[in-house]
């Protein structure tokens, strides 16, 4: 909700009983939440060995090191990824949910897919992808969270108004305070709300 810039109080988020197909309710939204944990693309096979020049350079660095810090490599941020790239995987993940839940029930649910792949981070780019497979699955709405980006991919006219209002818009959170509240050390599981 924070990334979509929807104001709310913590009390607006309710977790129904465990046996309910609804994971979280928020006002008139009935979210079925799922994580996308699978690899998003085929990994490149690791090289069997470093090329000679790189291996010699790394060996020299190791031999010249006088303290552990000399061996540490600088932090490298993950790979940027757009919502457009993950839509096929989102559709695949939700297809398995839809088959389990039945289409009639999906028409009353708002799917929320959290892309939980630490090697990637969301990059805002206008939505330019076909969502017809998601529409065919029958969900009332489908949203994706790819931190720090969120997007409501589709929202039928029966979907909550706050989702319809931002459908098709890729929203990016650039506010450091909001990001810290979502993912700082004290955020815990409720940070994803």
Write the layout of secondary structure elements.
Blueprint: E1 13-14, E2 24-26, E3 29-36, H1 52-64, E4 79-81, H2 83-101, H3 103-106, E5 110-115, E6 120-122, H4 132-137, E7 141-146, E8 149-155, H5 161-164, E9 170-172, H6 176-183
Parallel strand pairs: 3-5, 4-6, 5-7
Antiparallel strand pairs: 1-2, 2-3, 7-8, 8-9
**Largest beta-sheet details:** 7 strands, mixed
Instruction: Say which CATH homologous superfamily is assigned.
Output: Protein of unknown function DUF1780, putative endonuclease
Radius of gyration: 21 Å
Q: Roughly what is the average pLDDT, rounded to an integer? A: 82
Please mark out the parts with pLDDT under 50 across 5 or more consecutive residues, or reply none. Answer: 187-193
How much helical structure, as a percent, in the residues? Answer: 25-40%
Quaternary structure type? single chain
Alpha-beta content class: alpha/beta
The count of DSSP E runs of length 2 or more, i.e. the number of strands, is 9
| Tally of separate helices | 6
What is the H/E string?
EEEHEHHEEHEEHEH
The CATH topology name reads Hypothetical protein pa4535
The main sheet orders its strands as 1-2-3-5-7-8-9
Strand content: 15-25%
Architecture, CATH level 2? 3-Layer(aba) Sandwich
N-C termini distance:
6 Å
Number of domains: 1
Morphology: elongated
């Amino acid at each position: 909700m924070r990334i979509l810039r929807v104001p709310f109080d913590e009390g607006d988020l309710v977790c129904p009983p465990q046996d309910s197909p609804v994971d979280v309710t928020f006002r008139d939204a009935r979210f079925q939440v799922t994580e996308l944990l699978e690899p998003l693309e085929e990994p490149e096979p690791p090289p069997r060995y470093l090329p000679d020049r790189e291996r010699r350079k790394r060996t020299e660095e190791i031999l010249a090191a006088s303290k552990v810090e000399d061996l540490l490599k600088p932090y490298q941020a993950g790979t940027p990824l757009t919502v457009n790239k993950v839509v096929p995987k989102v559709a695949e993940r939700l297809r398995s949910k839809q088959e389990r839940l039945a289409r009639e029930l999906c028409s009353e649910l708002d799917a929320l897919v959290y892309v939980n792949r630490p090697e990637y981070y969301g990059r805002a780019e206008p939505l330019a992808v076909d969502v017809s497979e998601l529409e065919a699955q029958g969900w009332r709405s489908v949203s994706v969270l790819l931190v720090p980006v969120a997007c409501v991919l589709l929202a039928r006219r029966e979907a909550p108004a706050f989702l319809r209002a931002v459908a098709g818009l890729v929203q990016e959170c650039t506010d450091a305070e909001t990001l810290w509240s979502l993912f700082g050390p004290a955020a815990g599981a409720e940070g994803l709300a």
